Amino acid sequence: MQNSSALVSPFWLNQHIDDANLVVFMSTMNVITTGEPEAVPSGYIPGAQLFDFEHQVCDKTSGLPHTMPSPEVFQQEVRKLGVNNDSVIVIYDNQGVFSAPRVWWMFKCMGHKHVYVLNGGYPAWQENGFTSDVCLSKATSLGGFNSNFRADLIVDSEQVLAALSTTDKKVIDARSPERFFGKVAEPRAHLRSGHMPNACNLPFNQCIDNGQLINNSALRSKFEALAISTKQTLIFSCGSGVTACVLALAAHEAGYENLSVYDGSWSEWGADKSLPVVTD
Question: Which of 147, 212, 223, 276 could make a disulfide contact with 75, Cβ separation 3.0–4.6 Å?
Answer without folding.
Answer: 147
